[in-house]
Amino acid sequence: MTQVHMQISTSIKEATTEDIPVLINLAEATWSPTYRAILSQEQIDYMFDVIYTKEALLQQMQEGQQFFIMYEGSRPVGFASYSVKYAPEKVYKLNKIYLLPECQGKGYGRYLLKAVEKKVKQAGGAILDLNVNRYNKAKDFYERCGYHVHQQEDIAIGPYWMNDFVMRKSL
What we know:
- By secondary structure, this protein is an alpha+beta fold.
- It has five helices and seven strands.
- The chain has helices spanning 20-35, 41-51, 54-62, 108-122, 138-144, and strands at residues 10-14, 66-72, 75-86, 91-99, 127-133, 148-157, 160-170.
- Helix 1 (20-35) packs antiparallel against helix 2 (41-51).
- The longest helix is centred in the N-terminal third of the chain and has 16 residues, at 20-35.
- The N and C termini lie far apart (46 Å).
């Protein structure tokens, strides 16, 4: 029996306001699986409603977040966003990076992260920060990609708290 390896093409494109429904669909498919082991369903629902409404995403874009959508062929499978965090020191922030659960472990996350790092460097950034929940297993992924814990941060979101590590990489 002969094994056939199919090459699946992936691509990343900059998202516009026209892509907000795609971002919402991806967030709906990734948000709960990402956080259900570490946050209550009530907190997940609350935060989703604060961050991923059409109006909230539009505001984030207007405030300077650059969004990207990753495709496997023509199928959207993930997204990321970044923005300036502290311009005088050329610090940028990776605000979001999510992949569909069935696409994790294929190298897509690293590919998407590298694409964001390249865009940040092109924009003049020297440092990329990101927040990761202190109990999120993604912390190991970020460490493998060259990030280190820079500090801890507790962020109030409505009645809830995000207990995060701020991880940093020099670009």
